[in-house]
Amino acid sequence: AKKLQSAPKIQKLIENHEELSSYKVYYPKSSSPPYTSPLQLLTKSSFWENLLKVFFQNTYDKVPIFSIAHFDPKTAPQCVLAAIYYTGYKFLSDQPEELTLYMERYAKENLKILIRQCSLSAIQALLLYTAVYYGEGNVSLHYTCRAHATRIGYAIGIHLDNKIFSELEKYTRRLMIIKLRCINIVGSRSDNLTANFLTEFGSLNIKPVEPEWQTLNKNSVIYYEDEIERMLYAVCCSHYINFFDELKYSVYSSLYNDVRDSRYKSEWNKTRKDVTRIYQKYTRIFQSLSTMHPDYIQITSKYEFLICAFYHDTMEDMYFNLINKIEDLNSSDIDEAIDHLDWMFKFIIS
Asked: What is the pLDDT of residues 86-105, one digit of tens each?
């Protein structure tokens, strides 16, 4: 090393370095950065990855439309990805006008394609748009998406129990029929549809949805390192889907299946008991999970709240239908209806 340092060229280099290090460097004051159009975000993969993340954090729990264990954004249908991105964007706190206009056009172009398709992926995408437009109060587009999702569902026989499909496709088809039942039952209240508006509702699948389809893995868009957290996510999501299915099927089979006016109140009372029983059953399940895993109560309590909100919303729908059928309600019916409305009001303003 000493021989190397004694070499003339190396000595000169050392001297120059020492001379440069003694200089005081002055950096120019940074001027204001030039205006960057929000549309430039569209060219960044991080923007789209964030929309995926936001979607799974805010929407997927409420609208499970596929097996998260098998979802891969690299291979997912483009129409589904577009709907996911749009839904995720709606939950961003910062929505620049230029970017919002682009995302709206992006959604409209996707919808033009979807209404000409006839596939499971088209239903999945339309269900996401249905949920977004319902939340925004965009009645026209909400009804349009709902109608096309239902039409496509019947066209591909979504209500039929066909054994030729793979287990994954059977699972996906089951999720679709559950959601289609729900959006059509809810729609009957405001649209004054007849009792047989769903000609092919399908039979209730008494086999519960298994957690394996919603179990996160390292390839999932979201992933928890904690094994118990992953297990609870899958179990809670599956229980929520089962609750959803049982509750809506109970309402439909009792109140929307050609019930005579003279028997409506008795059928309504029976349905109220069934709906309450189902709600209490799953409330106990989530409370039991909370007791077993107190350190993960943020997961179990979230789903317990979701089924509570869904229960009160269902009861509100039922009372709306009851009032349309029977003008004079007794005092106990009125008191209970007010309790449900009060809960929903507090939920909305909270």
From this structure: 999 999 999 999 899 999 99
Q: 275: closest CA among 307, 250, 300, 304? A: 250
Dist. CA 110–CA 112, nearest whole Å: 5
Do the Cβ atoms of 239 and 282 come closer than 8 Å? yes
Q: How far apart are CA 187 and CA 317, in angstroms?
A: 10
**pTM > 0.85:** no
Do 171 and 49 lie in one domain? The reply is: yes
* Same structural domain, 237 and 337: yes
Task: Return the beta strands (E) in the chain as ranges.
Answer: none
Q: Does residue 169 sit in the same domain as residue 300? A: no
Is residue 279 a part of any domain in this protein?
Answer: yes
In this structure, are residues 261 and 327 in contact, taking their beta carbons and an 8 Å threshold? no
What the block records as the tokens of 4 is: 């190397």
* pLDDT tens readout for residues 171-221: 999 899 888 888 876 655 444 444 334 455 556 566 777 889 998 888 888
DSSP-based three-state secondary structure for 162? coil
d(CA 123, CA 105) in angstroms, rounded, equals: 20
Asked whether residue 21 is domain-assigned, the answer is no
* Ramachandran sector of residue 133 (left: φ over 0; alpha: ψ -120 to 50; beta: rest): alpha
| Number of domains composing the chain | 2
In this structure, what token pair is assigned to residue 245?
């299915």
What residues make up the domain containing 54?
42-203
